[in-house]
Amino acid sequence: MAILWPAFLMAGVLEMLVFALVDPDTLHWFGGTAITLAPSAVYTLAFFVFWLVIAVAGAMSHLLSMPADDLNHPSAPGAPHWPR
Predict the structure, then answer these.
(1) pLDDT in tens, 12-53
(2) How is the chain split into domains, by residue range?
């Protein structure tokens, strides 16, 4: 939860910033065809993508900030029991 709530808040901020500049009705796919989704669907999908990306970045930052001894200790939860 220490990663998901800040990611949720920042996804909301990022969505406000992006859609202050981008109109969902004018979006096109890479091939040039217009996106036929409703604007609320575009907002929802964008929010979940932003939330996922920010949460993954936060989780990776948390994982990389942990000391190596905490990750590599043999009695750590989830530590591999092989090879012996």
Answers:
(1) 999 999 999 999 998 988 988 998 999 999 999 999 999 999
(2) 1-18+35-68
